[in-house]
Protein 1
Amino acid sequence: MDYLRELFHESLNEEGTVEVAGYPFYRDVILRELESEGYREAFNEWLELRRENNLAKAEEILAKFDNRQRFKKIQELYKRGAIIPFVGAGMSMPSGYPSWTAFLYDVLNDTNVQKNAFDTLIKNGEYEEAAQLLFDNLPHGTFLERVENTFDEVPRPSGPVQRLPALFQNAVITTNFDGVLKKCYDDAGFSFVEELKGAEAKELPKQLGQNRRALVKLHGTANTSRDRILTKVEYDHHYANGATLKQVIETISNRTLLFLGCSLTTDRTIKCLVEIMREKGADNSPRHYAFLKINEGEDRLARRDELAAANIYPIWYTDDHDECIEALLEKLAEGAEL
């Protein structure tokens, strides 16, 4: 709620300060201090209007494609507390972090790697190979130092990621290196009791059984090399047949996952889910879901088939990422006892 109050203050102050006898005063401060009851009423009206706008946007999204019936199923699972959010980079970007692609291109500028070759890797979705190329071209430790400098700092959280603490209070899974999720949950008064990194995520079922709030960081954190997965060599080591991290993904996939801010393209996690579905069969595993943007010109049916192979079923949207995620999260919680 605190972050919504900050957004309300920003909306009050959009027209600038009020000047009295040459002194500037912020409008939210004037209203709070001189008319506290009016401030509460205005805030509640603003909240209700924001909620109505979000729900209207959600209805617009659910009217498209095959979204509505699928969303009803997601909402039923959510109300039973049967969904774990799987958070990707798209949920951290509003807080000031670059996308993984943007970060790699920034590092590229300080290497001797040929841009054409690098462009080809990115175009083909070979991000691990691209990261490995940069890693090998730089002096020892330099690539990891750039990762830490970029992703270890925790700026003020922004965007729909701030909704998560009020909606999901058991476990959150992420492949992000940054600390946005931890910061959001700390700020909301719902700090994680456990933080499980890499192979430690095997302990998640135990933590859930003990009703302990846990943050699972599958690929580690920005400020330590231990359990951090960045390059092709590291991915191959951690995701090889029988490797621990593949076992971890099989463990967490025994619960229904909701992917948020994830591109779900050539990610190793998705490849592992595909392998698991081939081995176990979709009928023997829970379905997973995603809030996923479909871009103009993209073959939605081909994407559907790729995701179905991993037992993932999307709610498609076409407009602004943050606006649509915010709207769908609002709709998800509608009628639930929070």
Protein 2
Amino acid sequence: MTPREETKIMFKIVDRAMLEVFSSIGEKRINVLMDLDNTHDIIPLDLPRLLTAPTPDFVHDMAGIYRHFNRQTMEMDGCFLPRYALPAHNQEGV
């Protein structure tokens, strides 16, 4: 997948997340996008599968990224691992 294709999918993921996860807390779209992009840099995500994930799995990953991605250290806190991390990072191989 090219970087341009990844970016397009990330924008779609953020659009969905803004509706399903962040609508009630008023988080800024740019923050959600940056957290997703930075997470993908350190823990490669299966972006197409995340985009089409069932709602509980999608909410788990996006809320978990929002809660555990540390913008100061650029690392994931609390040993959080998204369900849609690529198999090299996810021992369960979701």
